[in-house]
Design goal:
Blueprint (H helix, E strand, L loop, with lengths): L2 H11 L4 E2 L1 E5 L6 E5 L2 E6 L2 E8 L3 H9 L1 E6 L5 H7 L16 E3 L5 E3 L4 E13 L2 E13 L6 E3 L2 E3 L4
Antiparallel strand pairs: 1-11, 2-3, 2-6, 4-5, 5-10, 6-9, 7-8, 9-10, 11-12
């Protein structure tokens, strides 16, 4: 993509709003997590989700090696968690998990307490495209919470208006 088209694409995409999730994993490759704004349902049979992670992100390697991840959909009160896993809080860069309360999901991946929803997944398939890897997770457990979703648009976090 030309530089001008890439700049226009980035500027135009910032006008879209999306939910915010933190993908977490644990296993032989270690504990890791990353904030993402691309998470959506894929199929009801089997229940599955899609998430996208930049191929240079160290969490992607851990997810692929561990074979599992939890997609923790953040509630509006969890902006600090989103910022921590995006690397935006310098004092938490070495321990991003200190930003929230966690328990282990069925797969062994960290599940965020009080999240809006958590989808515990086995990594079913991956597809590389451009700079990102598309992860397909087969859902093995779902935890639902209450509250309003944290949103990301125009390069910042937002909440739904009443």
């Amino acid at each position: 993509m030309s530089g001008a088209l890439a700049d226009r694409f980035r500027d135009t995409m910032r006008r879209t709003a999306s939910g915010v999730a933190v993908l977490t994993t644990d296993g032989t490759a270690g504990r890791a997590g990353v904030t993402v704004s691309t998470l959506c349902s894929l199929s009801m049979e089997p229940p599955s989700v899609i998430a996208c992670v930049h191929r240079d992100n160290r969490t992607l390697d851990a997810i692929l090696k561990n074979g599992c991840f939890v997609a923790n959909v953040l509630a509006v009160h969890q902006e600090r968690v989103a910022k921590a896993f995006a690397g935006l809080i310098p004092e938490l860069r070495d321990d991003r998990f200190a930003s929230g309360d966690w328990r282990l999901a069925a797969t062994g991946a960290p599940l965020l307490q009080e999240s809006l929803a958590s989808f515990d997944c086995r990594t079913a398939s991956t597809h590389d495209f451009g700079t990102h890897c598309i992860l397909i997770g087969e859902v093995v457990e779902i935890i639902s919470g209450d509250g309003d979703p944290l949103l990301f648009a125009d390069r910042s976090f937002h909440r739904l208006a009443a």
